[in-house]
Each structure stands twice: as C-alpha cells, then as structure tokens.
Amino acid sequence: MIKNIVFDVGNVLVHFRWRELMIDLGTSEETADFLGKNMVLTEFWDRLDLGVEDEDKACEHFTELFPQYKKDIEMFWKNIPDVVRTFDHTLPLIKTLKAAGYKVYLLSNYPPKLSDLHWPGFTFRKLTDGEVISGKEKIAKPDPAIFRLLCERYGLEPSECLFIDDRKKNTDAAELVGMKGLVLDGREGIDSGIILKEAKKY
Predict the structure, then answer these.
(1) Looking at residues 12-32, what average pLDDT do you find?
(2) Which strand (E) or helix (H) includes residue 7?
C-alpha cells in the first residue's frame, strides 16, 4: 500500500524557467539556447546541485568561459531569485493528496544557497511532512543513496512510497531502492487524479 507521495521539485512543483528568465531580460533566443546548453544543462550545474561548487562563483566561472556573453550571464545570475515560479497546480495538488490521507515529502536536486533563497517562498512546503535537498546532503539523484536517506530520516518504508519526477532516470533510481516511480512533467500540468490512481494500484 502506498502511504507516502514523494515529489521532485523543479519542473514538477515549480517551474525552473531559466530560458524564460533569459528572454525576459532581453537575451536573444539563440543566446539563451547556447547558455542553456553550456551553462544550465552542464556537469558544472550538476555539481552545484551536489553542493560541491560555490554558487557565488558560478557567474564568474561562466563569464570566464564565455566572455562574449558576459552581459547576459551577469543579468541571469543577478536575477536568479526569479528563475523559479510555483505552478498553479501545486498547492491544490498537495492539498488533495493530504486530504486523501497521504503524507507528502520533497526530494530535490537543488544547490544549497539557491534553496535557501527560493524555498522559503514555496508556500506549499507548509503542507509537506519532510524534505531532502541534494546540495545540503552532498548526495544527488539519481544516486540511490539519496532515496535511502529520505527513508531513514523519516522512517519510511520504500515500498510504501510513490516517487514523482520529470526524469525517468530518477524514477528508475527510486525503484532500485524499492519505491514506485511515476514520471510527470509539471510544465504539462499535473492532475491529482493521475497520482491517486497510480497510488491505489499498489
């Protein structure tokens, strides 16, 4: 029986809108695509999530790599508070799951200083029962250890957990430790009915 719903955060409960932010700041679409590929979607950013690179030095790092985009990179990092926005579906979704009797947990790859910046503004956190943030723990998905850490910290039985992420490699990792996995992308909208139906299958 599923008793716990475990959510990824970025692009499931909140929109990681790096491209939209760049465009809003006047960066061209071509440059935004380049910086997405060579700044946001890189191993360096993965190390930010892991908490082994300093976010305060990220802007300097990327401007040294790509001086031709110095202005765009600096604008992006200056406006990093606006890089995430909570989806409209998030609060009603969690309220519905809590009303149905499920406990709700968060398990997210997120740089530590950015989590300190962004997470206090996530009002849906008040409804959740616990959280694990990769940058705080120096463990990141898809390492199965981060799922084990969540279970150990909150006394959860993996077989009673349904993990939801927008990346299959992460749900696959959750399944390795005995959780059930479900791939959903918040950018496409998430209906609580889908989650409830999946949870009741087990």
Answers:
(1) 98
(2) strand 4-7
Q: Output the CA–CA distances (angstroms, integers) from residue 178 to 86, 87, 148, 166, in the order listed.
A: 29, 29, 10, 19
Q: Which CATH architecture group holds 4-15+84-199?
A: 3-Layer(aba) Sandwich (3.40)
DSSP secondary structure letter of residue 22: H
Taking the whole predicted model, whether its pTM rises above 0.85 is answered as: yes
Measured distance CA(191)–CA(150) in Å, rounded: 25
In the chain, domain spans: 4-15+84-199, 18-82
Query: 161: helix, coil or strand?
Result: strand
Structure-block tokens of residue 98: 């809590």
Q: What is the pLDDT of residues 126-168, one digit of tens each?
A: 999 999 999 999 999 999 999 999 999 999 999 999 999 999 9
Q: In what order do the strands lie in the sheet with 4-7?
A: 130-133, 103-108, 4-7, 161-165, 180-183
Per-residue pLDDT reduced to its tens digit, 2-14: 999 999 999 999 9
- C-alpha distance from residue 30 to each of 27, 38, 89 (Å): 8, 12, 31
